[in-house]
Amino acid sequence: MANENKQATWGGRFKDGPAELMQRFSESISFDWRLAPFDVQVSKAHAAMLNHIGLMSADELQAVRDGLDAVLADIESGELVPNIASEDVHMNIEQALTKKTPAGARLQTARSRNDQVATDMRLFFRDACGKVSAQLKQLLRVIVEQAEANQQIVIPGYTHLQRAQPVSMAHHLLAWAQMFGRDLERFEALAERANICPLGSGALAGSTLPIDRAFVAKELGFVDANGEPRLTANSMDAVADRDLFIEFANAGAICGVHLSRVSEDGILWNSAEFGYVRFSDAFTTGSSLMPQKKNPDSLELLRGKSARLQGNLQTLLTLSKGLPLTYNRDLQEDKPPVFDTFDTLMISLEVLAGTLAGMTVRADKCTAAVSDPLLLATDLADYLVAKEVPFREAHHAIGTLVGMAEEQNVPLNQLPFDAVKKVNPAFDADWVDVFDLKRALSLRERPGMPGPEQTVARIAAWRKRLG
Ligand code: ARG
Fold it and tell me: Where are the domains of the chain?
């Protein structure tokens, strides 16, 4: 009984193996198995470095390299099934390798799982940020395409969910693009921040062996623009630091907020009350009871998934806040939230792109909504300001007119001119020209405004950025 379960990696110090319950409780292989390609990459680089400093022969290096390739192939083919008795991806791979070649027993020289997992995760983040960035660009292309197609459509812009001022639909869509554009910047910057090599930090205090950290960093591509290796500066921080995990989850949570807000706009626009857009059958679902229903489920789910993205960030903040330096086993719990953020983001970005690609705009509904002359009440105040009326006075005058129109139950632009003139003598007969939407938008051509020429320029700028 005593040694049956004895743990291969640290068995020397132990008489008994862990309880079966403890194995099930402490394993991470059920979620860190996906790190296998990165773990193999790290091990190959480490082996090359051991050979470089004379701690592994050329033959052993070759055997380790071939062995690791074979292990990875076995993983990919499904032949190598992870074993929870070997706890995590690092020990499963090490043990599978050692079965293939005795040289595997040299691989953990001057290395701990603590610096190993930190290095694996930096490779994961570099890769994940690249993939999320590519998916964000794909979504941005769809948004810019829809903006381009809907430059002529004018809709009310809202504050307090009350009709406020007219904007082109393109301008609204390009606001979404700005949000996702900032997400793209965040993930691109994070890939750069991930680009530092912790390997060689050991368990927490490095190694007494003459390891070459720069060599291994270069092998793994942890280099700056000039090809110079980038190394973590403190071995204790290197194995305890989880900032990148938190930053990745943070970027994911913010992106989730954007996914959710855009989804909410889409849900409103698609409702009968607005009716500005319709979504394709491919991303909507029906009701099992009400035959007439066509629900924007993809957008509702995106709004819901954003809650998970926020939860993952909170988990990581709470997980790390009370830990003494350096590594503590709590930190094994750092991976599920990161992987969930990555997986949730990837599919969410793809689903939003698909949903928006299938969005059709209902010009008649938009025209009807934006024809409310009240949307140009502010422009009418500006009209008076142009005639040298102080803005506060102008604001008051237009307020009076709006009240009159409401009382008489007529649209603002159909008040009789002499009544209007009585409210403020600066009004001329051309006051009604203000209610021309084309004029209203063409007066908004300064940077960042919804004027048609601005929109054309913004679309061109996005096209250039997205390639
Ligand atoms: N599976 C572990 C983790 O993800 C690897 C590091 C284990 N280190 C240790 N000292 N037990 O955290």
Answer: 20-109, 118-367, 372-466
